[in-house]
Amino acid sequence: MKKLAEFNLSRLVALAVAGVFLVGGDMAAQAAGRAKGIDARLQPLPDHPPLPTDNPSGTNVFPSKMDAKQELGYMLFFDPKMGGDASIACSDCHSPKAGWGFNDPISRGYPGTVHWRNSNTAFNSGYLNKIFWEGGTTSLEAQAPVAAEGAVAGNGSRDMMESRLRFSPEYVKRFKEVFGTEWPNVEDAYGAMAAFERYLSQPNTPYDKFLKGDEKAISEKAKTGLALFSGKAGCIQCHNTPMLTDEKFHDIGVPDAPEFEENGMQQVTYRYQLYAKGSHEEDYRTLKSDPGIYFKQKREKDKGKFRTAPLRYLKYTAPYMHNGTLFTLQEVVEFYNKGGGVDRWGNKSKLLKPLNLTKDEQAALVEFLLTMSGEEVKLPTPTLPGYAAMTDWQPKK
Ligand code: HEC
Ligand code: HEC
Question: Residues lining ligand 2, judged by CB closer than 6 Å?
Fold first, then answer.
């Protein structure tokens, strides 16, 4: 317990006197090996995401070697067998070349559709408790079927996907190795995908190193940005914890995506979503803006609210916001500098006010945001198993 040994009371008292706010419970861990004067709501990312007991896998994350389950998930993540017409894989909308997301403001959709929101990065998603822009899903194991089977994403039928896996000898072998089953099960495929997504983690960004006490890990300009982030600019009010999200829901007034007005296909998807999510007829016919978590309980006070977005790996995941309407981090900071967007529903967060940041301060804030991204992680497309008719590889009765 080197960390505990380093902990010394006089330093803690000094920090407390300096006005540093330490939340109870985990004081030793926070005071140990930590850069001075940092708001305690900012925390480095743990070395690996929490692992669910019902879907254990290795604690290893990129760039160390994958374990067998993660490697199986890696193949499945890139394999169009896990989609409706075997032409679209998770990686088509979560491409390593696009920060494990999709470059267009609005994601592509299943063939014959467009999506209706920006594709989140799948990177670091293992650390999230609330998944999707609406934060409505609580585990990667539960998220994968929504993606593989949802009409505007994978649109896969379980039985068909499972059948495809069962006629791929390489998968039969690997599923048996990892899950001990004679035949691959689609549920296990989702578990393996989740394990692979947990491997896509980056706990040692310059920002994390700085928080752990390496003063030189980030530039002076970024340190100015950090002070603004947790001070004058007030970002920390919503963007806190290791993932830089309170995982609460706020309306910040993001502008409407122009696609809604310009693209018939977009209208199709949007109306479909309204219908599928059980909206009443008036909304179905008249709503023009994405009402966010209103979809869940249909409460007026939820209109326009989205999960606070995590801020890691942003360097590679432009454009930003649920509909990709802000193209650069400069634009994001300008947006907040004006006090956020329009108050469309009367729900806009009272925490947003014009910030009066100078150009230099805005640039410092951007520089700071970039410290939460390490090197770009680009894995190649793995070799994907082919099909075979049932012959001698067939499991014996
Ligand atoms: C056709 C494009 C498409 C495909 C295919 C697709 N996704 Fe997504 N994914 C998206 C979009 C768009 C979102 C955001 C949707 C929303 O929040 O309403 C998303 C969100 C996610 C998130 C949420 C991350 C976060 O920050 O909360 C994860 C994880 C994810 N997808 C994983 C997967 C996996 C695993 C697969 C394959 C089984 C997959 N996706 C297939 C487009 C796609
Ligand atoms: C009131 C809470 C709140 C405050 C304060 C706040 N944000 Fe946000 N932030 C959010 C929410 C909610 C979203 C997602 C909104 C959406 O997509 O509609 C978001 C999204 C973002 C994104 C986009 C991330 C992505 O992956 O698309 C960035 C970058 C960002 N915020 C940075 C900041 C900065 C910098 C500040 C301070 C100047 C700040 N935020 C202040 C709640 C907040």
Answer: 133, 233-235, 237-239, 250, 252, 254, 306, 308-309, 311, 314, 317, 320-322, 329, 332-333, 336, 349, 351-352, 365
Q: Are residues 240 and 365 in the same domain?
A: yes
Q: Domain range holding 87?
A: 68-199
CB 233 within 8 A of CB 357: yes
Ligand nearest to the CA of 191: 1
Q: How many CA atoms lie within 13 A of 56 on its CB side?
A: 1
Considering every ligand atom shown, identify the ligand nearest to the alpha carbon of residue 331 and give its number. Answer: 2
Same domain flag for 94 and 149:
yes
What integer pLDDT is reported at residue 394 of this predicted model? 63
- Please count the structural domains in the chain: 3
The string over 156-169, giving b where at least 16 C-beta atoms fall within 10 Å of a residue's C-beta and e elsewhere, is beeeebbebbbbbb
Yes or no: say if 240 and 21 are a contact pair by the CB < 8 Å rule: no
pLDDT per residue as tens digits for the range 219-278: 999 999 999 999 999 999 999 999 999 999 999 999 999 988 889 999 999 999 999 999
